[in-house]
Automatic annotation (TrEMBL):
<dbReference type="InterPro" id="IPR004839">
    <property type="entry name" value="Aminotransferase_I/II_large"/>
</dbReference>
<keyword id="KW-0032">Aminotransferase</keyword>
<keyword id="KW-0808">Transferase</keyword>
<dbReference type="GO" id="GO:0004069">
    <property type="term" value="F:L-aspartate:2-oxoglutarate aminotransferase activity"/>
</dbReference>
<dbReference type="GO" id="GO:0006532">
    <property type="term" value="P:aspartate biosynthetic process"/>
</dbReference>
<dbReference type="InterPro" id="IPR015422">
    <property type="entry name" value="PyrdxlP-dep_Trfase_small"/>
</dbReference>
<dbReference type="InterPro" id="IPR004838">
    <property type="entry name" value="NHTrfase_class1_PyrdxlP-BS"/>
</dbReference>
<keyword id="KW-0663">Pyridoxal phosphate</keyword>
<dbReference type="Pfam" id="PF00155">
    <property type="entry name" value="Aminotran_1_2"/>
</dbReference>
<dbReference type="GO" id="GO:0005829">
    <property type="term" value="C:cytosol"/>
</dbReference>
<dbReference type="InterPro" id="IPR015424">
    <property type="entry name" value="PyrdxlP-dep_Trfase"/>
</dbReference>
<comment type="subunit">
    <text>Homodimer.</text>
</comment>
<feature type="domain" description="Aminotransferase class I/classII large">
    <location>
        <begin position="29"/>
        <end position="394"/>
    </location>
</feature>
<protein>
    <recommendedName>
        <fullName>Aspartate aminotransferase</fullName>
        <ecNumber>2.6.1.1</ecNumber>
    </recommendedName>
</protein>
<dbReference type="InterPro" id="IPR015421">
    <property type="entry name" value="PyrdxlP-dep_Trfase_major"/>
</dbReference>
<dbReference type="GO" id="GO:0030170">
    <property type="term" value="F:pyridoxal phosphate binding"/>
</dbReference>
<dbReference type="InterPro" id="IPR000796">
    <property type="entry name" value="Asp_trans"/>
</dbReference>
Length: 400
């Protein structure tokens, strides 16, 4: 009898299973629009030009392989905060930051900080949402109340449902909000709606917990995509921000993230930092250095910073162009039944297509198009070489 015979199997990970199926599929024309990774025109993982340049500079130095500090590489942490929060609050020491293991690590540490250190255990989540939020919050000791985020008929944010939840939630409740390029729906709040949400949260003493996984992908501008955070700061909210560089630097495997807590009183910054240090020491001790050093090189060099901004503009522009192509093919070439405006109005990597679970399965089983059962399509997985084939398969499934 094993000491572990009482253990039970946990729910399968859909995306892990899809990756295994993809690797084992020998069809030369298979199309991968599943996992949220920006891919180049050739369908392979894309290295940003600015990252290639930063790597060349990196190898000119002898950084060695020593540990970083518990709160992270200082140059990275400070510049990461400036990218997402802005230089003013960072210079005033109103931001407590800690390097994390990717955006997931930032969300996990942020949830731990709120639930265990601060005692704020009630989390609110609009659904559909990134599936990892629920187990992540549960593991941190929090409870989750869900509300409708997406109006499937209008194919946009269900803002009235969000307002009802904001106005009904008890004080000190935490609302998990995605900054932009919402995963999986690709439907974002307008800046006017963000202002309204910020005012309600300040008035009702609620805590914004902002997941920033795609900054720069919505509009091509990190500054513009980051404006919702400024709306909370303007009304005096203290904000928890979970930042990832997996997408906007393409450093997926380097697991580069950062947690930021914006406070209203500089006297409280050291207290928050100490809590983050204490929790992170128990979990990871220190974070990986390579990706952090690359990002620090980029943000300290004006020429590289300009290149990074151009790379994001190019990537965002390509996504919009691909969306327009899909729309044109579905509406003009294939005349696919239905309304497809949302392929153009949604933003970022994803298109929340509206396919049913059965249709998504048929697309996979019969056409070798790999996507999750939600019907979410990674637009970056499409290019000139496969977009027509994708739309033909999509049309066939819709008509079946």
């Amino acid at each position: 009898m094993s000491q572990f015979s009482h253990l039970e199997l946990q729910p399968a990970d859909e995306f892990n299973d899809l990756r295994i199926k993809l690797a084992n599929d020998s069809d030369p024309n298979k199309i991968d629009v599943s996992i949220g990774v920006y891919r180049g025109e050739d369908g392979n993982s894309f290295t940003l030009p600015v990252v290639r340049r930063a790597k060349a500079l990196y190898h000119e130095e002898n950084y060695g392989h020593d540990y970083t500090f518990c709160l992270g590489l200082p140059d990275f942490v400070q510049n990461a905060a400036k990218v997402i929060i802005g230089e003013t609050l960072v210079s005033k020491k109103l931001v407590a930051s800690c390097q994390t293991i990717g955006g997931t690590g930032a969300c996990h540490l942020g949830a731990l900080f709120l639930s265990q250190s601060s005692g704020y255990k009630n989390f609110y989540l609009g659904v559909p949402a990134w599936p990892n939020y629920l187990p992540l919050i549960k593991q941190a000791g929090g409870t989750v109340t869900t509300y409708s985020y997406y109006d499937t008929e209008k194919k946009q944010v269900d803002f009235n449902a969000m307002l009802r939840s904001l106005n009904a939630a008890p004080a000190k409740s935490v609302f998990i909000l995605q900054l932009c390029c919402h995963n999986p729906t690709a439907a974002d709040l307008t800046i006017e709606q963000w202002s309204q949400v910020a005012e309600i949260m300040k008035k009702r003493d609620l805590i914004p917990f902002i997941d920033a996984a795609y900054q720069g992908f919505a509009t091509g501008s990190m500054e513009t995509d980051g404006l919702p955070i400024q709306k909370f700061i303007e009304v005096g909210c203290e904000v928890v921000v979970c930042q990832s560089f997996s997408k906007n630097l393409g450093l997926y495997g380097e697991r580069l993230g950062c947690l930021h807590v914006v406070v209203n009183d500089v006297a409280h910054t050291p207290l928050v930092l100490d809590q983050l240090r204490y929790m992170y020491r128990a979990e990871c001790s220190s974070s990986p250095a390579y990706g952090a050093r690359l990002m620090a090189l980029i943000t300290k060099n004006d020429e590289l910073l300009t290149q990074w901004k151009k790379d994001l503009q190019d990537m965002s522009s390509r996504l919009r162009t691909t969306r327009a192509t899909v729309y044109e093919l579905l509406t003009e070439k294939y005349k696919t039944p239905g309304t497809w405006e949302h392929v153009k109005t949604q933003r970022g990597l994803f298109w929340y297509s509206g396919l049913t679970e059965q249709q998504s399965k048929k697309l996979l089983d019969e056409h070798h198009v790999f996507l999750p059962k939600s019907g979410r399509v990674n637009v970056a997985g499409l290019s000139d070489r496969n977009v027509d084939s994708f739309c033909a398969a999509f049309d066939a499934v819709v008509r079946s």
